[in-house]
Design a protein that fits this description.
9-stranded mixed beta sheet; single chain; 5-stranded mixed beta sheet
């Protein structure tokens, strides 16, 4: 039985529709009919939101440019992995298949270069011989073994006959991260929010600036902003403003608990500064300067060691 928490988000205009936590790995999923329809703005928010949670963004779709997705094959849109519903379920359940992906018009199988070299040498096969039997250059074999290149489906079939299937990487949450460029998202982003909500968040940042290591702002996400903080240990805090309904507060609480992300909820005047949910801190917008005091006495703040 796979240890997992699944949260279906209710707002259709979010950059994320589902959050799944599997063995502490967070998957932020956007579900669409055609992956090609996902605009850059939604993709950027999804990647930023996922990075804040130390998770992975994922697009689940039926089609790509009008063509049905192949099962057990990973596509990409705006540098986000794209898979079918069935493949996503296999991924979450830990039913590992070969890591097959589409790149620049071709279909490739990801290989473990170190294992390829180890097995090749154990079998007494030279690079020259392997290159000849695969029908590629010696340089190509060197690239395979150094992790600089993967193999086409045709080469993978020959490689399996000669070396065996141990050299092929399996598709899992950890290996999928390889398709998401880690340096792409600019975390010190400027807030695109305007008006009162933006001012409230900026004021909060001023009162916490000495402990904030990274800032994140989201246009269409469950949180409005997030901070990775550096105190006695590395962690993060989310911020939510303008909650109108108890249902929305309940959703935020579920996300906070599942992802281990304490959340500051900025409320209207005379909002209580305590919450029945230990992972939430509700704060009167007019009294933002009290945030350090509240964090210091709130149970969740013990992990931050704020004085």
């Amino acid at each position: 039985m796979v240890d997992k928490i699944h949260i279906q988000l209710k707002k259709p205009n979010y950059c994320v529709d589902e959050l799944t936590v599997v063995s502490r790995e967070v998957i932020a999923t956007k579900k669409v009919k055609d992956a090609y329809s996902v605009p850059q703005s939604i993709a950027d928010n999804l990647k930023s939101f996922s990075k804040f949670l130390n998770g992975i963004p994922l697009i689940v779709a039926e089609e790509y440019k009008g063509e049905n997705l192949e099962e057990e094959v990973v596509y990409t849109r705006h540098n986000i992995p794209v898979v079918s519903e069935k493949t996503a379920e296999s991924l979450i359940e830990g039913r590992n298949s070969y890591f097959i992906y589409v790149n620049k018009g071709g279909i490739f199988v990801k290989i473990d270069g170190k294992k390829l070299k180890e097995i090749r040498e154990r079998k007494g096969i030279s690079r020259t011989r392997l290159a000849r039997e695969l029908g590629v250059s010696i340089k190509a074999v060197a690239y395979y073994e150094e992790g600089l290149s993967d193999v086409s489906l045709e080469i993978a079939s020959k490689l399996e006959e000669i070396i065996g299937d141990e050299v092929f990487e399996r598709l899992n949450i950890e290996s999928l991260k390889e398709l998401v460029p880690q340096k792409e998202t600019v975390v010190e982003a400027k807030s695109t929010k305007t008006g009162k909500e933006n001012r409230d968040i900026e004021r909060l940042i001023q009162f916490l600036k000495d402990m904030i290591k990274e800032k994140y702002f989201f246009d269409k996400a469950p949180f409005d902003a997030g901070f990775k903080v550096s105190t006695s240990m590395f962690h993060r805090i989310a911020v939510k403003t303008g909650i109108q309904e108890d249902e929305e507060l309940e959703e935020i609480s579920k996300i906070s608990k599942a992802t281990d992300t304490p959340t500051i909820v900025l409320g209207e005047e005379n909002t209580e500064t305590t919450s029945n949910e230990e992972n939430l801190i509700t704060l009167d917008k007019q009294k933002i300067e009290k945030i350090r005091e509240i964090l210091a006495r709130n149970p969740i703040s013990r992990q931050f060691s704020i004085e």
